[in-house]
Amino acid sequence: MAKKEMKRVLVTGAVGQIGSELTMALRERHGAENVLATGRKTRPSQALLDSGPFEFIDVTRKESIEAVVDKYAIDTIYHMAAILSAVGEDKPWLCWDVNINGLKNVLDIGVERGLTRVFVPSSIAVFGPGTPLADTPNDTVLRPTTMYGVTKVAGELLADYYVKRFGLDCRGVRYPGIISHETLPGGGTTDYAVAIYYGAVEKGSYECFVSEDTVLPMMYMPDAIKATLDLMDAPFADLAHHNDFNIAAMSFSAGELAASIRAVMPEFTCTYKPDFRQAIADSWPDSIDDTAAREEWGWQPAYDLAAMTEDMLAALRDKQSAGLLK
């Protein structure tokens, strides 16, 4: 599978937390006119609209994806559209429909249209009971307890099948919790790790929906974008894995996260009131082993907790000064 030059890119879920920033990075790389952003019904930011083409599609309707693939002569898809963990527990069958049927539509179009490459994101939600919680291996027990996790395991296997059976070049990483100051998260269990920074800047306080000692793997958005692009650039022949790469940057407790904010803002206070998302968090690893990603395509993160906190607070303060926060 020789790599072709990627020129015409489609991003599904481009209004989401990762998709919105990934779209901007891809437009900088390939040219704005060559990267189509798509969403289902949420209005994109003005910055996203102004920076390049945008279309509304529904990934559960194959014909709506086909229409834009043909209209824009797409050769590469970053399939970021998904229902996340917390929303998925409230609406499990919608989660299945979007995450699995939507993915199959994208993969089928990839085969039928002869696409160069498809990115299929996964998540640490694939892990569950029986999985080692510390330094979770890349290849281990996958028995998730959420519908979101079930769809991500099934999605990894389905995409791997398309690689083997149809020769479609699909690739994906298991994102940890992603932290960003650009776009608010959309219903995930790790949302507290973003909301806490907004609370610090806007109110000087935050009530966290997981316990103080809850430890989860996390990553700053610039590293998440870098991992995505680095994997898509890697020579196919170098990859032993395809759609299930662990990627790690840092692991910390909710209390350690609050302490990192207090190191910059001593007056900040955080209280803890765990809700239903605590059980989901408890089923996920404390830390993960990403040796496969480091060895097969040279993965290396740039940010630790202190550097991320300093950058997040500075960016949010700038937005507050500009009147861009609520």
Summarize the topology.
Blueprint: E1 9-12, H1 17-30, E2 35-39, H2 46-51, E3 54-56, H3 62-71, E4 76-79, H4 85-90, H5 92-112, E5 117-119, E6 122-123, H6 147-166, E7 170-171, E8 173-175, E9 177-179, H7 192-202, E10 205-208, E11 215-220, H8 221-233, E12 245-246, E13 250-253, H9 254-262, E14 269-272, H10 277-282, H11 291-297, H12 305-321
Parallel strand pairs: 1-2, 1-4, 2-3, 4-5, 5-7, 6-8, 8-12, 9-11, 10-14
Antiparallel strand pairs: 11-13
Can I get a quick summary?
With 326 residues, the chain is an alpha/beta fold.
Primary descriptors:
326 residues; alpha/beta; Rossmann fold; UDP-galactose 4-epimerase, domain 1; 2 domains; 6-stranded parallel sheet; 3-stranded parallel sheet; 12 helices; globular
General description of the model:
Strand 2, helix 2 (46-51) and strand 3 form a beta-alpha-beta unit. It is globular and about 55 Å long. Helix content is 43%, strand content 15%. The model has no long low-confidence stretch (mean pLDDT 95). The protein has 326 residues and is α/β, with parallel strands linked by helices. The chain has two domains: 9-176 and 220-246, Rossmann fold (3-Layer(aba) Sandwich); 178-218 and 249-288 and 302-321, UDP-galactose 4-epimerase, domain 1 (Alpha-Beta Complex), CATH 3.90.25. Strands 3-2-1-4-5-7 form a six-stranded parallel sheet, sandwiched between helices. Strands 6-8-12 form a three-stranded parallel sheet. A three-stranded mixed sheet has the order 9-11-13. It is built from twelve helices and 14 strands. The longest helix is centred in the N-terminal third of the chain and has 21 residues, at 92-112.
